[in-house]
Specification:
With 1324 residues, this protein is of the alpha+beta class. The chain contains 42 helices and 40 strands. The chain is 35% helix and 16% strand. 51% of the residues are buried.
């Protein structure tokens, strides 16, 4: 159980940055992604609700109204002919007679006609008061034509409303003719809708209130198609912009065969009343349907107190509720584009269509079916109408009291409060909800109320937190203008929720910069950053300030007006206040906001340098958070906005006597100082995203100073060839030695990064190195490489020119193989010039994993700049890499073809991190369209994705009941059960003999010197004698995977182990080049992927032979201990990806074995090549950390471990040396060893030693081909010989041994027959 206790539930290297080295997600927010996880739900192409109820725009900015239209002119055509009934309509007695709530027969005909026209205009003015109205009572054809043409002339391209009341004329014909009068009013004259189309043009909205109105709509559609066809045949006929008649909107009171209702309790113009006075007609109809409300008369309804636009009054609240309900009904049933056109484009159109839903409900009751274009689905039976009925009933119940003198106090409706509760219930379902929340438009309406505003905003923020899909829904319903206006509110309680909502919106759509600039909305967020009193009002203040920084970074991103506005409002000084905040998220976004503010903005950059913010950024280069360190480099990169020195261009153009008088500016020197500090810090950083951002920064320097970099490279190459050029020479111009040294520093850093252990970092750096070296080759300044190198390159086949990315020169193997990429034919010709071979461009496209550095590989003196793989003939490892240069994707881990595939196993071809695709994401073009040497950073885009993820929701891995949590819990329970039923606990482990060979595993290469069992899975790791890692299933003997560790030829894996064994294990490898690599999905052929890699020891001393890189892992603290030739033990914090401590060994020889105590990991024990054992306490200062030494061994320490005494105490240290003596020590007493066991006979060399941590056992292997198993009392439990009988187990030279932590299993790797043998004390 010690492993389970020590291995805390936390899994290291599982953060978002480890998924793809900080590259933005491929799945953008425009995809239908819920809660940050793709659950297979997608939005329909037309924006309608999909299978799970999701709906929304197909583009992230589709919610915006790009073309807002206004209804600027209104034609009111009233063909009433009061007193004379039309010939084709037989009216009932009594009959509906009121028009615009006026009885036409109560006034003289002409007066009644004028009054009706005036009332109709007033009713429309409620919805559009600024339009120009033209009333045409009983018009003739000539008057109708003249008025229509005049309206279109004045309206220009805006919308016209044409309202036609045909209650006093015959019904429209099927041919689409409506009826008007002749001048003497003696005849009805037909007027074709085709003519009206010609007079009014488009866009228009038509309202037809007459029987058989559907005929007009059908004919209009036919004529519109006809006009579109005519225009398609002759598009330039009229030489004026053509707007299709399909852009017109039509509302018809009934179908082609319907007659308007004649119920005397209804108005004659029922359809018009629904469209223009919806509250009055809705209440009248509701009273007529409810016998319990017979005490409410129509006159009382017309006297409801209040104003429509005053939500505090009864009439205003009813109108508010009606608007919310009709909006919600429309939003729930209409496709997104239709809803946007009808309900968000034009206030008049939106009002008419909201009221049209009411008209459909009422008129269908009277067997009339209103029609519209665009056609709407039926809404008359929508469940939300019940909510309207309830609100109407509650108001009417109070109406008698409200009309008394004095009136009673109006009790406001609980409608909005109840709808918010319903919305909250939906939110409580979370991701399991099967449909979108139908209350969303109502929540938008609630924002208008101060009473419910805070609650509505809090619920809205919970909804937006569900994922990008929810933000799109909220934007599509029209939330943006409301939250924009709320930025003017001084209410302190709204600040945290508004900040959160704006962060969610801008994380999805960054096109709101102009909106924030208008009315200075952005200052809302600056004030929160500035205010010292906000901390008491806003919980999690640092997190909200980080959101403010994020919002301001979006505001400044590529928006000069935003940058200028922020500079004017002292944002730089405000940001500097939070650079040392304890919250790493705030520190990260302060740096990013700072970068975005000064990006390509010299004035802000100079102000930043003047305020000394660059020095504050340098401090963050050692921050404990990888993201903060990366953001600091990102911000420093923004300081580079041209040549780093004043003399880079202008000085070269000056005469010699002037050059000496010019010195670099203070700001340029400050930037150079920053860059040098970034290089020093970044090269030693363990985080790949930090080193990647360092490459991006250096690319900006190279891009602005390419000519200088070329000259620096040429100068150094000439010096290496022996043509000693003065170090101050640079292209024939004399410049300062300091400036020269600066560019040399840049060049050396690029060479080092081009062989970075992380593939993407190396690929990006090699791109820069190529950009520097290519002109030298193209200009012929570097013509040929040494003969041996030329011969090697010229004999390689076209299409497979391979090598290390940074194989520029030198004997030291620091490079890792870099994945291949294509080059142009021009580059291929240049490459041929450098290599002395024929051009490969004439054949198939050249693919390579080397840069132009290969052409200069013979210049061995460049080892002083950076170490590279040894040159020479193409090794087997290189051939393996070249054979995959034409493989499909670009992977993060090497791939080896061929090899043994017994048992149906193949070698791993990891391709999860597509280096080629990620590399292309960083390329950008120059102004002339050519590929730029300057790389584009994706760190901002990747950081932005944080705010697209749910912030309020507990991560699935920590949320009880979630799939990930249950899986993790199950794994832990299974692991605990495995540990509890361990055979080492069920019987006396001192009697285990391991005398049965239970399996025999074949290896392509010699198994090397390292084996490692997974404690809970049937997995056995092995490292071959080259760069391969083999994963076996020891139960069935199959090989699960093989993958290349990508260490250079001439180096080998010297350390191999699992971490995170209690959850999802990772594989850690260390190679004697000084590099640590960590892999996930290690057992998968397809998904094996490198998680992180770094140079753990970069100060290796030139010893021969090269010392091994030794590692030890402490799961509880997440510490990786590393030692080698270095005169110290380095402690790496894997979570922070930083070296947190260097413990001086105080010894000259290399460490050969390393272990730590398992509880707290404070004590470290190091074994040395001469047999010395030192115990260090890492809690103490480095010079005082050595607390005891054991000196009884006389030869190299093979292994040392602290053993469990059976009671959970680890006070006993077991150690073994090559001479064969195994000793046991009490670390509490440094005087002498407790006992000594001679594990091998005198004169025999012990080549392998395995010490069991939890059982009193150890096993040793020798160069005389046998294995001995002992208990701690010195009893030889068993000896496994090379050939013990005809059918006995056969082994070779023993290279490595490993015990299983909980099973009676011993693995032995032999070199004679390249095999692994498994031994157990039980058979089967």
């Amino acid at each position: 159980m010690e492993m389970l206790e020590g291995g805390a539930a936390y899994s290291f290297l599982s953060d978002r940055r480890h998924d793809a080295c900080g590259e933005p997600s491929v799945v953008g927010p425009s995809e239908g992604v819920r809660g940050g996880v793709d659950d297979g739900v997608r939005v329909a192409g037309d924006g309608r609700v999909s299978e799970k109820g999701e709906r929304g725009p197909t583009r992230k900015d589709d919610w915006r109204m790009r073309e807002r239209l206004k209804t600027v002119s209104v034609a009111l055509v009233l063909c009433l002919n009061i007193g004379i009934d039309p010939p084709d309509i037989l009216k009932t007695t009594p009959c509906a007679k009121t028009e615009c709530w006026i009885d036409p027969l109560s006034l003289p005909p002409q007066k009644a006609l004028e009054t009706i026209g005036k009332n109709l205009q007033q009713q429309y003015e409620v919805w559009q008061p600024r339009a120009r109205y033209k009333t045409m009572p009983d018009p003739s054809i000539e008057e109708t034509k003249k008025s229509c043409l005049s309206l279109r002339k004045n309206a220009k391209d805006e919308r016209i409303l044409f309202h036609y009341n045909g209650h006093g004329v015959p019904k429209p014909t099927k041919g689409g003719e409506i009826w008007v009068f002749n001048k003497s009013y003696t005849q009805y004259l037909p007027c074709s809708i085709y003519d009206i189309q010609s007079w009014l043009g488009s866009p228009c909205i038509y309202v037809f209130d007459c029987s058989n109105a559907g005929n007009i709509l059908l004919a209009f559609d036919r004529f519109a198609d006809q006009r579109d066809e005519e225009h398609a045949k002759n598009p330039d006929r009229d030489n004026i912009p053509y707007i299709s008649m399909k852009e017109c909107i039509l509302l018809a009171a009934c179908g082609p065969t319907d007659t308007l209702p004649m119920n005397p309790d209804l108005p004659a113009d029922l359809f018009t009343c629904c469209l223009t006075t919806p509250i009055e007609i809705a209440l009248r109809w509701f009273v007529s349907q409810n016998p319990l409300l017979q005490n409410i008369s129509p006159d009382m309804i017309m006297k409801i107190p209040g104003q429509l636009n005053d939500r505090r009054t009864a009439l205003g609240e009813l109108n508010w509720i009606f608007t919310a309900i009709t909006d919600t009904i429309a939003w729930n049933i209409l496709p997104h584009d239709v809803f946007k056109k009808l309900f968000r484009q034009d206030l008049m159109v939106a009002a008419l269509f909201r009221n049209f839903l009411l008209a459909e409900r009422i008129m269908r009751y009277y067997h009339c079916t209103p029609m519209s274009f665009p056609k709407l689905p039926g809404t008359h039976q929508h469940p939300l109408w019940s909510s309207w009925d309830l609100a109407a009933e509650m108001c009417l119940y109070q109406l008698p009291g409200l009309l008394k003198t004095p009136p009673v106090v109006y009790q406001h409706s609980s409608f909005f409060s109840e709808q918010l509760t319903a919305f909250e219930v939906w939110l409580s379902k979370g991701p399991i909800a099967t449909s979108h929340p139908e209350q969303l438009p109502i929540v938008l309406q609630v924002l208008l109320s101060q009473v419910h505003r805070l609650r509505a905003l809090m619920l809205l923020s919970r909804f937006l937190d569900l994922g990008p899909w929810s933000v799109k829904l909220a934007l599509s319903v029209g939330i943006f203008p409301y939250v924009l206006k709320l930025l003017q509110s001084p209410a302190a309680e709204l600040k945290p929720v508004l900040v959160f909502i704006w962060a969610k919106i801008l994380a999805l759509d960054s096109s709101c910069q102009s909106d924030l600039l208008k009315d200075n909305g952005f200052t809302y967020f600056i004030n929160i950053l500035t205010s010292v009193n906000s901390a008491s009002m806003i919980p999690n203040m640092s997190e909200h300030r980080a959101m403010c920084c994020f919002i301001l970074s979006v505001f400044c991103h590529g928006f000069r007006f935003g940058q200028e506005a922020c500079l004017k409002n002292d944002l730089l000084l405000t940001l500097s206040l939070h650079l040392n905040d304890p919250d790493p998220l705030l520190r990260q976004w302060v740096c990013i906001a700072l970068a975005k503010m000064i990006e390509n903005f010299p004035t802000a950059r100079d102000q930043c340098l003047k305020e000394g913010l660059h020095e504050r950024l340098l401090i963050l280069l050692t921050d404990m958070s990888s993201e903060v360190r990366t953001s600091a480099i990102f911000a420093i990169s923004a300081l580079i906005q041209g040549s780093t020195s004043l003399d880079s261009q202008s000085l070269l153009q000056q005469p010699p006597q002037v050059k000496s008088l010019i010195s670099p500016s203070a700001s340029a020197l400050a930037v150079e100082m920053c860059i040098c500090n970034v290089i020093l810090s970044g090269l030693a950083d363990a985080s790949p995203i930090v080193r990647k951002e360092l490459v991006i920064l250096l690319s900006r320097v190279v891009g602005f100073n390419l000519d200088r970099m070329i000259e620096v490279a040429f100068t150094l190459i000439q010096e290496e060839k022996g043509s000693l050029v003065p170090v101050t020479a640079l292209g024939g111009n004399t410049t300062s030695t300091g400036s020269m040294q600066f560019y040399i520093c840049i060049y050396k850093a690029l060479l080092s990064l081009s062989v970075d252990p992380f593939p993407l970092v190396a690929r990006l750096a090699a791109h820069l190195v190529d950009g520097i070296h290519t002109p030298l080759v193209a200009q012929g300044r570097v013509k040929t490489a040494p003969a041996a190198q030329s011969k090697r390159l010229s004999t390689m086949p076209a299409g497979a020119v391979t090598g290390a990315a940074g194989s520029f020169a030198g004997p030291q193997p620091l490079a890792s193989a870099r994945p291949p990429r294509k080059i142009s034919s021009m580059q291929a010709d240049m490459y041929s010039m450098a290599s002395g071979g024929p051009s490969a461009a004439s054949g198939s496209t050249v693919k390579r994993n080397s840069s132009f550095l290969n052409g200069f590989k013979g210049f061995q003196g460049l080892a002083s700049l950076v170490s590279f793989p040894v040159s020479g003939s193409l090794t087997g490892h290189e051939r393996d890499l070249s054979s995959t240069s034409s493989a499909g994707g670009l992977g993060s881990v090497g791939y080896k073809q061929g090899g043994d595939t017994r048992g149906g196993n193949e070698c791993s071809q990891p391709r999860r991190l597509d280096v080629g695709k990620c590399f292309l994401n960083h390329l950008q073009a120059d102004a002339d369209g050519s590929e730029s040497v300057t790389l584009k950073s994706t760190f901002y885009d990747w950081s932005l994705e944080y705010f697209r993820e749910p912030q309020m929701k507990v991560p699935d891995i920590d949320d009880p009941g979630s799939t990930q949590f249950n899986q993790k819990l199950w794994r832990h329970q299974q692991n605990e059960r495995s540990a509890n039923i361990s055979v080492l606990r069920s019987q006396d482990p001192t009697m285990l003999k391991f005398d049965n060979q239970v399996n025999f595993l074949h290896s392509d290469n010699n198994p090397g010197t390292h084996l490692y069992f997974h404690p809970f899975e049937p997995h056995l790791l092995g490292a071959d004698d080259a760069d391969g890692v083999i994963v076996y299933n020891w139960e069935d003997g199959t090989r699960l995977n093989w993958f290349s560790n990508s260490n250079p030829p001439g180096t080998r894996i010297t350390s191999l182990r699992f971490i995170n064994e209690n959850d999802i294990a990772l594989v850690v490898t260390g190679s004697d080049e000084g590099i640590v690599r960590i892999y996930k999905n290690y057992s998968s052929l397809e998904n094996c992927e490198i998680v992180s890699s770094w140079r753990a020891v970069n100060e290796n001393l030139p010893t021969t032979p090269r010392a091994d890189l030794i590692t030890d892992w402490h799961q509880k603290s997440g510490s990786l201990l590393v030692a080698g030739d270095l005169r110290m033990i380095r402690v790496w914090d894997v979570e922070r990806e930083l070296c947190v401590q260097d413990i001086g060994t105080k010894y000259q020889l290399a460490v050969t074995s390393l272990t730590s105590e398992k509880r707290e990991g404070n004590l470290l024990i190091a074994g040395y090549a001469d047999g010395l054992l030192n115990v260090y306490d890492k809690r103490m200062a480095s010079r005082e950390s050595l607390i005891m030494s054991f000196r009884e061994h006389s030869s190299r320490i093979l292994s040392c471990k602290l053993q469990n005494d059976g009671y959970g105490n680890f006070f006993t240290l077991a150690s073994g040396a090559v001479a064969g003596d195994v000793r046991f020590w009490d670390i509490r007493n440094a005087k002498k060893s407790l006992r000594t066991i001679g594990a091998v006979p005198s004169g025999v060399e012990m080549t392998a030693l395995a010490i069991h941590e939890d059982a009193p056992l150890f096993a040793c292997g020798t160069n005389t081909e046998y294995i001995r198993i002992f208990n701690v009392n010195g009893v030889n439990l068993n000896t496994i010989r090379y050939n013990d009988g005809f059918l006995g187990p056969r082994i070779g030279h023993v290279g490595c041994l490993a015990f299983h932590p909980y099973r009676d299993l011993l693995a032995a790797g032999t070199t004679g027959n390249a095999s692994l043998s498994l031994f157990s004390s039980s058979r089967g």
